[in-house]
Write a sequence for this structure.
DNA sequence: TGTTAATGGATAGTGATACTGTCCGCTCGT
DNA sequence: ACGAGCGGACAGTATCACTATCCATTAACA
């Protein structure tokens, strides 16, 4: 497969493919001459993964590189690879020198062990979650971490399924890739569903109290 | 309050405050002289909102401006303001001219009406969700939209609480602001919890099957 | 009352990011 | 034989979110 064919097969422009090659996101093709290289299906797959990390996950190139490195590191166990990937995916990290946040981190840590979850101590989700709680409180949301247990319960169910599905894959790389894109896509799906539920809830609370009897509006499926 | 005091009170540099003023994110202070203006608590609050939209939501300035415009538009009902805000928050929108995506959009639309959700036809979440389904399928995830009903059920519960909480606020602007930051923060919280659940699930499946009896590892809370 | 520091406003510059364009000498396909 | 396409190098571009500098003015303190 020549670079023009790779471009056609992946939907990524030649210029961008060259850029990804330069940035080390994509392995060079097999050189067949000084100005000729051969690309294969693995390159198409890799490009799809790269584009998904960028488009769905919104990851900058540097993070994509880190994720791919974790995916490709064959020397780690599947579980350690998942951990690396979670770390590489990253999120906006807070300044942990803030007293309010370190306090919230303890709260989060206690809740995690209370649930029986085994989490690496350097998991980025812990300070991230703590910072989010602090943000809510700054806006006077009366939030305690126990209120998140409902979310955590369903997350547990989904996570068990997803991990089992990934572990059933034939080869390690595919398993890790499956986890990566599953993580990113389901996070977005969860968010979009949440927005739909909010809009529906808002509509439910809006329509009956307003008692608009305009003939242009009729509520066909409005009830539960 | 002078600009230096506003800066101190909000934690935003003077240069950035001037930038937000220029970009129309922040209302000018009350001019008391050619080179003097007076800022108040509303400016501090607004800066906190702006920074949260940027830091938590990762919104670009243009989107922040659109969200703030929706928040400030007093001529809309609360429900319509929520709709505007959801639209302004936005997400990465797909090319809807793709046949695969329009097909998935029908699927999403049917599922939504099947749930009895009343959603505006131009809600950005619909194409976004459709694109995410297509992405999953491109990676061979055997996904049907009904699998998302569990997520949707808990989202319904949370959304009802959140909307009721926001509607109970004294003034309209605060209510809309509450919805905005609640939406963004809870989306991140949901995502972080999901990552923790994945790591915990991975640990559960890893530790027992590997049967590593190394003395350096012991499982204190590993069970459910 | 003088002087110094800060202010609002305007405009230019910066650094990071993710490409995109151009050039080159080479070589594959016809 | 020869033109389109190739890999590789490198410079250029667009956008974004600030940041720095300048200016005339004015507030605040000595």
């Amino acid at each position: 497969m020549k670079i023009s064919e790779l471009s056609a097969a992946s939907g990524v422009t030649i210029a961008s493919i060259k850029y990804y090659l330069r940035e080390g996101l994509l392995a060079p093709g097999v050189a067949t001459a000084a100005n000729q290289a051969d690309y294969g299906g693995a390159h198409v797959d890799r490009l799809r993964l790269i584009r998904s990390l960028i488009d769905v996950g919104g990851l900058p190139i540097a993070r994509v590189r880190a994720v791919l490195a974790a995916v490709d590191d064959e020397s780690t166990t599947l579980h350690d690879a998942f951990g690396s990937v979670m770390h590489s995916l990253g999120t906006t990290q807070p300044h942990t020198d803030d007293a309010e946040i370190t306090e919230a981190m303890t709260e989060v840590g206690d809740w995690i062990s209370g649930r029986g979850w085994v989490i690496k101590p350097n998991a980025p989700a812990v300070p991230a979650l703590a910072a989010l709680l602090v943000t809510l409180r700054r806006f006077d949301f009366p939030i305690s971490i126990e209120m998140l247990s409902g979310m955590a319960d369903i997350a547990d169910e989904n996570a068990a399924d997803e991990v089992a599905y990934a572990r059933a894959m034939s080869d390690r790389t595919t398993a890790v890739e499956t986890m990566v894109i599953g993580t990113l896509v389901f996070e977005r799906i969860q968010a979009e569903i949440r927005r739909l539920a909010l809009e529906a809830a808002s509509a439910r609370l809006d329509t009956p109290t307003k008692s608009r009897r305009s003939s242009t509006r009729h509520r066909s499926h409005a009830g539960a």
User: Anything to note?
Assistant: The CA atoms of residues 10 and 44 of chain B lie 6 Å apart. Chain B touches chain A through 84 residues (CB under 8 Å). Residues 2-4, 14, 18, 21-22, 28-29, 31, 33-37 of chain B lie near DNA strand C (CB under 10 Å from a C1'). The beta strands of chain B are 30-33, 36-38.
